[in-house]
Write a structure and sequence with these properties.
Shape: globular
Structural class: mainly alpha
Strand content: under 5%
Number of helices: 12
Oligomer: single chain
Low-confidence stretches: none
């Protein structure tokens, strides 16, 4: 699933700067998933990694997000290519809808070969799927998804806030859902659908939790994931005219992204990281990547993707809007 997440990151980069090299990489990635997906009788498109025994819901959701961002950004796509990509997206969206439990949450996937729905969910996949469905409805006019979205949003907001916090002040499930859920609820609020303000409240509640209880600003390892959600919470506070909330969120984002930039290999703040200064490199597979901890060599694809997505979100909304 890391590849699907990276693909969405590439799509977001392309939407940000429309670079031709980025677009070529994105096209190759989409073609990979097209080759490794099979069409079910109901039209669902099922992504099947070679050699894997299960199909993960998150893979379909992340490839859907990549398709949505690309279809929005590439206004010059040839009509035939656009039809191919829209057909892919339609198939993945059918799959995601079919994986919704009666409760509103989502199955974590299918058992490969027999396509039996897995009876448990995942906080990551719940959030990723909700975000994909909301963006498809909001940006590409897939309004038929609204009943699925509304059912999911109601269940997931309750599941990962009130219900989770009754059991623990700092539950792992809320941390796993946080950035995906907050991004999803912010997009829902922007769309102005029924109960939009309720989901804006949920996004802010989750953000105060990640700051005050989860302690995102006090952790030594990489917390780039959290800033994807915090940027969207800042947008909500700004839109509401809540200056106190916006100021607190902006301070947290400024301090956090500055600190996390010191984790970047050969990055602009390398002089602030003694470990990186002692281990300089010109390896193109390392330059620009993000450490998982400031003083250890481990680099993870998803850590890099989350942090740079947070940076792009901040550049797109906060830092172009702030003097």
């Amino acid at each position: 699933m890391r590849q699907a997440g990276a693909l969405w990151g590439v799509a977001f980069c392309y939407a940000f700067d429309h670079d031709a090299t980025t677009r070529a990489a994105l096209e190759r990635g989409l073609d990979f998933f097209r080759r490794h997906s099979t069409r079910r009788g109901d039209g669902a498109l099922i992504p099947r990694y070679p050699g894997k025994v299960s199909v993960q819901t998150g893979t379909a959701a992340l490839v859907s997000l990549a398709l949505i961002d690309y279809l929005r950004a590439a206004i010059d796509l040839p009509p035939e290519r656009r039809r191919v990509l829209e057909s892919m997206l339609d198939g993945y969206l059918i799959l995601l809808q079919s994986l919704q439990f009666n409760s509103g949450a989502f199955s974590s996937g299918l058992i490969r070969g027999i396509d039996v729905e897995i009876g448990r969910g995942s906080p990551y996949y719940d959030g990723e799927t909700l975000l994909a469905l909301i963006e498809a409805a909001k940006y590409l006019g897939r309004r038929e998804l609204l009943p699925v979205i509304q059912k999911a949003a109601a269940r997931l907001a309750q599941k990962y806030t009130v219900e989770a916090w009754r059991k623990s002040r700092n539950p792992d499930d809320t941390k796993s859902f946080y950035q995906w859920g907050t991004m999803a609820f912010a997009e829902y609020q922007d769309a102005g659908w029924p109960h939009a303000d309720l989901y804006a409240d949920a996004a802010l509640a989750l953000s105060w939790w990640v700051i005050n209880v989860h302690g995102v600003g006090t952790r030594s390892f990489n917390t780039g994931y959290a800033y994807e959600g915090l940027v969207q919470a800042w947008r909500i506070a700004q839109k509401r005219g809540d200056e106190a909330a916006a100021s607190r969120l902006l301070h947290t984002i400024d301090a956090g992204l500055y600190q996390l930039t010191t984790f970047q290999v050969e990055g602009p703040l390398i002089k602030k990281n003694r470990f990186l200064l002692l281990h300089r490199t010109s390896d193109p597979l390392a330059v620009g990547a993000i450490l998982n901890e400031p003083n250890r060599p481990t680099m993870r694809l998803d850590v890099t993707q989350h942090q740079m997505h947070a940076v792009l979100l901040a550049l797109d909304s906060i830092y172009q809007a702030t003097p």
